[in-house]
Amino acid sequence: MRSTAFTEGSGSEMIAGNSAWSKKHLLGMEGLTREEIGVILETASSLREVNHRDIKKVPTLRGKTVINLFFENSTRTRTSFELAGKRMSADVINFSVNASSVSKGESLYDTVANLKAMNPDVVVIRHPESGAPQFLAHHLDAAIVNAGDGRHEHPTQSLLDILTIDDNLLRLGRTEFSGLTVAICGDVLHSRVARSNAWGLATMGARVRFVGPPTLIPPHAAEVFGVEVHHDMESGLAGAEVVMMLRLQTERMQGGFLPSTREYFHYWGLDRRRLAMAAPEAIVMHPGPMNRGVEIASDVADDPERAVILDQVANGLAVRMAVLYRLCGGGRKG
Amino acid sequence: MERRASLTLIRGGRVVDPSRDFDATADLLLEGGRVRAVGRVELPADCEVIEAAGLVVAPGLVDMHVHLREPGYEYKETIAGGLAAAVAGGVTSVAAMPNTRPVTDDPSIVDFVLGRATAAGLANLFPIGAITRGLEGKELTEMGLMKEAGCVAFSDDGRAVVSGSVMRRALEYSRAFSTLIIQHAEDPGLAGCGCMHEGLISTRLGLPGIPAQAESSLVDRDVRLVELTGGRYHVAHISTAGAVAAVARAREAGLPVSCEVTPHHLALTDEAVMGYDTDAKMSPPLRGAGDRAALLEGLARRVITVIATDHAPHDRDSKRVEFCRATNGVIGLETLLPIALELVRDGVLPLKECLAAITCNPAALLGIDRGTLAVGAPADVVLFDPAEVWTVDASRLHGTARNTCFDRRRVMGRVKLTLVGGRPVFREGI
After folding, report:
1. I need a labelling partner for B74 at 20 to 30 A (CA). Which of A205, A226, B47, B425 fits?
2. B227 & B315 share domain
3. Which domains, from first to last, does chain A contain?
4. CA-to-CA distance for B143 and B130, rounded, in angstroms?
5. DSSP string of A186-201, one letter each residue
6. Active site includes B105?
7. Do A220 and B207 touch (CB under 8 A)?
C-alpha cells in the first residue's frame, strides 16, 4: 500500500484511504482518529516518490490557491509548505506579517478580511498566539492548516514525526505503534510540538512520557494527555525507543523557568551517556532548529545510526503535500 | 412630561422583600416616589393600577459591581447605555467602578458621573471611588471628600492593591469614614501573562494560565491586614475555593469581611473557553468545576452574601482578536436576574435568600437606602415573571455592548416592569 505510485495525470484515485478523511481543516491532532492519521500517512507515503523524480511536480492541485500566512519567522516550515504546494502545482503565495506591522495596527481580523478577497482554497497559518487558526476557521471559508499556534498545536510536525517513527518501527523490532515508548524531553510547557505529539502518538497507541524540569512541564499534563511525567532523564529515558528532544528557547532564563543553560544541559541535555539509558536501538528526533550543547550534544545529533532528524525534514515535505491534497478534496468521492 | 397619578397600586403579586423577611401575596402602594403601604390595600381614588398576579414584586435589584465606561471609553458604553441595560435587567441601583479615564479619584469626577446619571433618568448610580490616585497603588485618594460627593465604597478594581503597606493604610484610613474597601484580589506577579484559569483546559488549549492561588493568596494576606486594622474589607468577584475558605474563616472570627460572586462564575467553568471564545474571557477567569462548586456552597452557607455582575462592556474590536490579546470582561446586567434564579431552580438558595443577594445585602454593605420595600423607602421596584422561559440573544440586549457569555442560553425569569422612584423606566409586555 505504501508503494502505490502517484502517477502523472489526475492520479488521485491511486491514493489509498479515500473515504476516511472528512475534516475541512487541520487545526490540531486532538480529535483526529487513528484512521484519519492513517490516511495522511498513506497519502504521504505515496507522494514521497514524487520528490525523487527528475521532474518533481504533479498537476494534482492545479488551479488551487494556497496562502502561507506566517506571523512568526519560520523558514523551514514555510519553505516546506511552499514546496509542498508547488510540487502539487498549486499557486502558492507567501504572506509574512512581522510583529512590527501588527503593532502598527492591522488586526488579525483585517488581515483575514483581505485574504478573503483573494478566495484561497487553503490558508496555512503560523501564529504566536494559541487559537489563531480557530479564529481563521471561524472567519474564512478556506480550509485552514495550523502550522503552529502559540504553545497549542503543530499538527503537521506531529504527522511527520509519526511518519518518521513509522519508517523506523521495524528496526525497533515492532510492527505497530501499540506499546511503543516515546520520551518527549525538554521544554514541554511552551511546546506545541509536544502537545500535538502527545495527542497523535496516544491515538496511535504509543506510550508517551514527558521528561523535563518541573517548571517546564504543563500543569495537569498526566491527566490531560494521559502521559507519564518524569523530572529526571534517567527514569524518563529508561527503555524509551524514541527520544524526542525539544528546542529550549533561550529566553526561558528571563521568565524564571531555569537558572542557566549550563545547568539545563547538565541535567536534561541528551548526550551519549544519557542516550545509553534508552532502549538499545532508540532513535533520536528533534523538530529543529537545534541548540547544540543546550538540549542535545553534537555527537548525538550527528550520529547517523541514531538521529533521524533529517529524515524528519524530508518526511515533512511529503506530509504537507498529503495534507494539502486531502484538504483540497483529494480522494473525496462524489 | 407625562402626567401621572401620584398613587400607584401594584396589585396581587407575590411580594418578596428579603429586607423585611416578607414573602406573601400582597398589594404594594406607591406614593410620591416612595413605598406607602404593603399588604392588603383598598383601591384609593385617582390611582394607577398595575395588575401583578402571577408576577414576583421585589425591591429593584442592586448591583454593587458595574463598569460604566464614561468618561473616557464612551465607545464601549455610555452611562446612559449602561443604565438602560440595568433597568432592562430589573436593576435600579448600580455601584460604578472608578476605572474610567480619568479615573474616579477626585470629587469632581464623582460630580460628573452623578450628573450624567441624573440626566439619563434611569437607574440610580452610586459611584465607587478609587483607593489610590490613578489606580496606581501608591497614594490614597481623598476618601472623605469623595464620600461626601457621593462615593459609597472604594476600590482599585481592574487592578489589585498589591502593596501590603498601601492596603494596610487604606483599611486603616477608611475607618475614619466607615467606608468599604473592595479588593480585586489577584496577585499580578503570580497571574503573570496568564489569560485564563490554570487547569486542564488551559493546558489543552495551550494558553498560559492564572493559578487559583493568585486570588487566594492575596485574600489570605488581606484578611491578616483586616486583623491588624479593623477596616471593612470586601472581595470583589470571588472565584476560587481557597478565597472562599479564607473569607469563611475571617467571618467565623468575626472580622468585617465580605465578598461577592458574579453570575458567570456561578454558572460557567473554564470549559466555556474551549474554542477560544473571547466572550468567555474575564478577570478573574472562569475557574474549574471544583471552584465553581465551592462558590455555590459558599452562597448556600452565607459565606458569600452578594451576587454582583462585574458588568464590563467592550466594543467589538476589543474582543474580535486572538484570545490572549482580547480584553477582559463580560456584560451582565440584563442576565443577572435569570442566572441568579437558576440558583433557586437548582436548590442552592430559596427565592428570598437569592433576592437578598441582589437587593438588601449589597445595599447594606454600601450603606444605601435601597433594596427594600419598607414603608417610606424609595419606590424602586421590579416585577418579573419567574416562570417565563426565554433565550438570551446578544443582538437584542438593551445596552450598548454585546459581549455576553450567555448568548443563546435558555433562561427562566423575565423582567416585566422596572420602577425607579415610582416611575416606570422599563416595561416589557405588561
Report:
1. B425
2. yes
3. 12-152+314-327 (3.40.50.1370), 155-312 (3.40.50.1370)
4. 8
5. S--TT-HHHHHHHHHH
6. no
7. no
